[in-house]
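Exercise 7.
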Amino acid sequence: MPIAPRVNFLGVVPRFSEAIVKLQGPGDYVVVARGLPRAIVMSCPDGCGETLTINLDQRVGPAWRKYDKDGQLTVYPSVWRDSGCGAHFIVWKNRILWCGPSEGYSDVDADEVLLAKVMAMLPLKSYVHYEAIAEAVDANPWDAYWACKDLVRLGRAKQGRRGMFRATRA
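Solution. The predicted structure, written as tokens, is:
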């Protein structure tokens, strides 16, 4: 099967068993919700044929965050299969972005409004994590991260370790 470049939303159901039967091809996903979204059930986008369950319910263990803006799904953090095909990817605005040493996400750019909001959150003398910036500017963490990376590329910010950024004097 081919690798999916995007995710494909197939609906919301109350039970996992109902989600599985809806999946047809790589990148298809269904949200399992009972009151609140509990999980995303997805056909692995790499075409291996496996079904992934992405937990959204923090009450039952480590959970991903789901952002759905303008009908576009973003999931944070990345999805990394530690078994089977070993796929590692980001779901960002319905796109599948593959992770690996050669991935630079050069086609991911922040808009000017977001760049300005993120820049306003960066201190000069200390570092702040992009997740905190995302929350402060009401953005998903991936958008905040790539805005920070754009600001570094433009010489307006400096990157520290592990997702930490600060403003430069430039």
